[in-house]
Write a structure and sequence with these properties.
Homodimer. This protein is an alpha/beta fold. The chain folds into three domains: about 170 residues, NAD(P)-binding Rossmann-like Domain (Rossmann fold, 3-Layer(aba) Sandwich), CATH 3.40.50; about 250 residues, N-(1-d-carboxylethyl)-l-norvaline Dehydrogenase, domain 2, CATH 1.10.1040; about 40 residues, Up-down Bundle (Single alpha-helices involved in coiled-coils or other helix-helix interfaces), CATH 1.20.5.320. It has 21 helices and twelve strands. The strands form three sheets. The chain has a seven-stranded mixed β-sheet, with helices on both faces. Strands 10-11-12 form a three-stranded antiparallel β-sheet. Strand 4, helix 5 and strand 5 form a beta-alpha-beta unit. The longest helix is centred in the C-terminal third of the chain and has 34 residues. The structure holds 2'-monophosphoadenosine-5'-diphosphate (ATR). The site of 2'-monophosphoadenosine-5'-diphosphate (ATR) has 15 residues, from helix 2 and helix 5.
């Protein structure tokens, strides 16, 4: 028997503190993280070779209980049994849940750590509750490295189950300022909903960084090494974040085969696994404008519309374009790009928090926005210094209706907005696409506006569909007799 590996099923029965089902990269890494933190971990994978490989390669990192069948796996868990599922989202997750539920007993806890759609999580939670089991949909962010060294964990599900899983999950999560990046988010689908919006924000954050890069390259004429250096510098200020840090690394990378910057030999078609799209779909249903995330999802879709781009690139007329930035003005321009990036990013986060509040209200989840900013400070892909400011903003005013109204962010915007406008105008004049910079600015201006053209839209709706309108000066609903004498009647 290898050290630390309990293979005798009689002696290992009921020994494991937690079990992990699904030992692909994320599952193996989180199982190792539990083991390294002193927990006895049962491990099971549909094909046994992955289980064998995990214990052969990493058995010395802690105590593993490898199981060949789901029944063996369940039998090896301490009660209440805690099983973390790390398999493909969708049908595979449903299949594993059924197998576990059949082998488990009342009060046992199934945790789905995959990227499930929150409505699936709500359905599964209800089904497991009816069988006397606890079901916890837990968002886990941080990729492979996070899973191994400390992810950000967003568990939903019944509050009682958190008493049994909270300490375990917190012991493997990232820690910032002595606070683990894991807390109970709310009932049923709350954890996966929040993880979904987290990913949506990540899409927007990556896109604004991409837009900044594009402008530095094609408006300011900097080369990749110079842009990498610029991002490195930015990472020491307000924009300090994991995504800015890795952007510098990617841009500094030189392709060994060609000697070119790696970014120049990567095909410019961005992929997606669907969580950004889900965020936007949910936002549409909730009636919350998440324009930054929406444009970021569409930007990826456009980049991957290969057949269309082949025909449109170099064909559609540009009109007269402005000249690139004069080298003498570069430094000012670069700083303006930084401000535009920061402002657009603030809008994306503000919109994401709006969506979370709307989801929380819709489903009675009672999500505390302070918790999110706190648990996203470490482990996850959008970890950033300024999340501390978001926590402070919601601590000062838990009912804040818009993050941008917090005094700190109001003051920041004051210093950003001129540069932001300048950059959107310049990009437009140069014919360079900045969908999130530009749409975020329009969103911001719409939020600022005393009057919106929505009044005209109400007039149009009343004209063609008698949908009625309200007046600014009187209570009630009104309709104009458009096809009659055009007098107004009370509806
Ligand atoms: P990654 O992207 O890290 O490879 P994934 O595709 O999300 O991970 O999940 C793959 C895991 O789901 C594997 O553990 C896989 O088991 P196998 O190694 O046996 O293929 C597991 N998986 C996929 N479909 C499954 C199913 N129907 N039942 C059980 N496990 C399944």
């Amino acid at each position: 028997m290898l050290p630390g590996i309990l293979t005798d099923m009689t002696s290992s029965a009921g020994m494991a503190h937690i079990g992990v089902v699904g030992l692909a990269v994320m599952g193996s890494n989180i199982a190792r993280n539990f083991a390294r933190n002193g927990h006895t971990v049962a491990v099971y994978n549909r094909s046994y070779d992955k289980t064998e490989r995990l214990v052969a390669d990493h058995g010395n990192e802690g105590t593993f209980v490898p199981a060949a069948t789901i029944e063996e796996f369940v039998a090896s868990l301490q009660r209440p049994r805690r099983a973390l599922i790390m398999v493909q989202a969708g049908a595979a997750t449903d299949a594993v849940i059924e197998q576990l539920a059949d082998a488990m007993e009342e009060g046992d806890i199934i945790i789905d750590g995959g990227n499930a759609l929150y409505t699936d999580t709500m359905r599964r939670e209800a089904a497991m509750r009816a069988r006397g089991l606890h079901f916890v949909g837990a968002g886990i962010s941080g990729g492979e490295e996070g899973a191994l060294h400390g992810p950000s964990i967003m568990p939903g599900g019944p509050a009682e189950s958190y008493e049994h899983i909270g300490p375990l999950l917190e012991s493997v999560a990232a820690v910032v300022d002595n606070t683990p990046c894991c807390t109970h988010i709310g009932p049923n689908g709350a954890g996966h909903f929040v993880k979904m919006v987290h990913n949506g924000i990540e899409y927007a954050d990556m896109q604004v960084i991409g837009e900044a890069y594009h402008l530095l390259r094609y408006a300011a004429g900097l080369d990749c090494a110079e842009i990498a250096e610029t991002f490195r510098k930015w990472n020491t200020g307000d924009l300090n974040s994991y995504l800015v840090e890795i952007t510098a690394e990617v841009l500094a990378q030189v392709d060994a085969a060609t000697g070119k910057p790696l970014v120049d030999v990567i095909v410019d078609q961005a992929g997606q696994k669907g969580t950004g799209r889900w965020t936007v779909k949910a936002a549409l249903d909730l009636g919350i404008p998440v324009t930054g995330i929406g444009e970021a999802v569409f930007a990826r879709a456009l980049s991957s519309s290969v057949a269309q781009r082949e025909q449109t690139a170099g064909t559609l007329p540009s009109g007269k374009l402005a000249s690139p930035i004069d080298p003498a003005d570069r430094e000012t321009f670069v700083e303006a790009v930084r401000r535009a990036l920061y402002a657009s990013k603030l809008v994306a986060y503000s919109q994401g928090f709006d969506e979370i509040r709307a989801g929380s209200d819709e489903y009675d989840w009672n999500i505390d926005p302070r918790d999110l900013a706190t648990i996203w400070r470490g482990g996850c892909i959008i970890r950033a210094d300024f999340l501390n400011r978001i926590t402070e903003a919601y601590t000062a005013n838990p009912d804040l209706r818009c993050l941008l109204l917090d005094p700190y962010f109001l003051n920041e915007m004051e210093g950003l907005v001129d540069a932001w406008r300048h950059i959107v105008v310049t990009a437009t004049e140069l014919g360079l696409p900045v969908p999130v910079f530009a749409s975020s600015l329009s969103y911001y201006d719409a939020l600022r506006a005393e009057r919106l053209p929505a009044a005209l839209i109400q007039g149009q709706r009343d004209y063609f569909g008698a949908h009625t309108y309200r007046r600014v000066d009187r209570e009630g609903s009104f309709h104009t007799l458009w096809s009659g004498d055009r007098s107004e009647v009370e509806a």
